[in-house]
Write a structure and sequence with these properties.
The chain is an alpha+beta fold. It has three domains: 8-116, Acyl-CoA dehydrogenase/oxidase, N-terminal domain (Butyryl-Coa Dehydrogenase, subunit A, domain 1); 125-227, Butyryl-CoA Dehydrogenase, subunit A, domain 2, CATH 2.40.110; 231-352, Butyryl-CoA Dehydrogenase, subunit A, domain 3, CATH 1.20.140.10. The protein has helices at 8-25, 29-35, 40-47, 69-82, 84-91, 94-103, 106-116, 231-263, 275-303, 309-334, 345-352, and strands spanning 125-127, 143-147, 150-161, 168-175, 178-185, 191-196, 207-218, 265-266, 269-270. The strands form two sheets. Strands 1, 2, 3, 4, 5, 6 and 7 form a seven-stranded mixed beta sheet that branches. A two-stranded antiparallel sheet has the order 8-9.
């Protein structure tokens, strides 16, 4: 039988994350958006839930649990329901941890996983996105060249979350025309981090451009060693993670607009009684559930060790398009109230716009 019921463990995890979001995120997210900063103690509380390190063996500082992309997607949706910027910041280390678990050599895991799995939140991040029309993450413009036993990296990355705070940055680069991942120390003289970016959304999330100019790294810091990493699987995880974020922010927009329409009265009755509003809210609910199911379908293939390239692509395409529709509808249903910062739907709109554009802010 085809069963979408969450396991007992998944229900418990979902409830714990939802409680943290309700208690610490939803009411404070507006202030974070205005100030451009998320408190470290709130990030720490999310870190202690263990979403990023659950599948890491105990010998490296993790929980030693089975890797479950579906469970991670559930967690990301709940975090993004509270605030998308917070979700990305709280789980940024997973973009370095995940490829090391999947493809890292034993030496790489022993060297780096304890750093990224410390008791206190240890920022590390991913440099994947690049500027320019037609950017294809499968063929990054950043290049790697093997020379004298090392790799020389050249290129520029944009929207690198927590780049200034991170001790290491996982860089996606093309080696002989094939995508690869390289671990770069933030203090490498060939790597420079620009001033904080000013983006359309996610004001609370610090992100930067990262420039690599003849950045020389040891050969042993190519993820997977001489054979490289499973780069396609890594991108599939990234896309599914972005879909989970899109589902979360879309659900937040839908639920807020629904509740507002029930309470807001015009001409003696709630505006939800009007067919145009009711049909719109019904469409939002349908699209949120559809996004979640496509995300889980792709995640389930990964969880069963199968290739999810088609499923991850379709989920990302559908989620990117419909997130934009849902967050726009949230603003529209509130009318003039949707345009002012007193209500969260304008923030959902700004943040949700990135789902269809960005790659690899998080990973399952």
């Amino acid at each position: 039988m085809f069963d979408l019921e969450l396991s007992k463990e998944q229900k418990m995890i979902k409830e714990e994350v939802a409680k943290l979001v309700k208690d610490l995120v939803i009411e404070q997210s507006k202030e974070w958006d205005m100030s451009g900063e998320i408190p470290k103690d709130t990030i720490q509380k999310a870190w202690e839930l263990g979403a990023s390190v659950s599948a890491v063996p105990e010998e490296f500082g993790g929980f030693g649990m089975e890797d479950s992309p579906i469970t991670t997607a559930i967690i990301l949706e709940e975090l993004a329901y509270g605030d998308m910027a917070f979700a990305v910041a709280a789980t940024a280390p997973s973009t370095a941890i995940s490829p090391l678990l999947d493809s890292g050599t034993k030496e790489q895991q022993t060297k780096y996983l304890p750093i990224f799995c410390a008791e206190e939140f240890a920022p590390c991040t991913l440099g994947l996105n690049e500027e320019g029309f037609g950017f294809d993450p499968l063929e990054p413009g950043t290049t790697a060249e093997k020379k004298n036993g090392s790799y020389i990296l050249n290129g520029k990355k944009v929207f690198v979350p927590l780049a200034e705070q991170s001790s290491h940055i996982m860089i996606a680069a093309s080696l002989d025309g094939v995508g690869n991942l390289f671990i770069v120390d933030k203090n490498n003289p060939g790597l420079s981090v620009s001033e904080r970016e000013k983006n359309l959304g996610m004001y609370a999330l610090a992100s930067n451009e990262v420039i690599l100019e003849n950045c020389e790294i040891p050969a042993e810091d190519r993820v997977g060693g001489d054979k490289g990493c499973d780069y396609t699987r890594f991108l599939q995880k990234c896309r599914i993670g972005m879909c989970a974020l899109g589902t979360g922010v879309s659900r937040a927009s839908y639920e807020f607009a629904r509740d507002y329409a029930k309470d807001r009265e015009q001409f003696g009755e709630p505006i939800v009684y009007r067919q145009s509003i009711a049909f719109n809210i019904g469409d939002m609910a349908t699209e949120v559930d559809s996004m979640r199911l496509l995300t889980w379908k792709a995640a389930s293939k990964l969880e069963n060790g199968k290739d999810a390239q088609r499923e991850a692509y379709l989920a990302k395409l559908f989620t990117g398009k419909n997130t934009m529709t849902i967050v726009n509808d949230g603003v529209q249903i509130l009318g003039g109230h949707g345009f002012v910062r007193e209500y969260p739907v304008e923030r959902f709109y700004r943040n949700g716009r990135g789902i269809g554009i960005l790659e690899g802010a998080v990973t399952v």
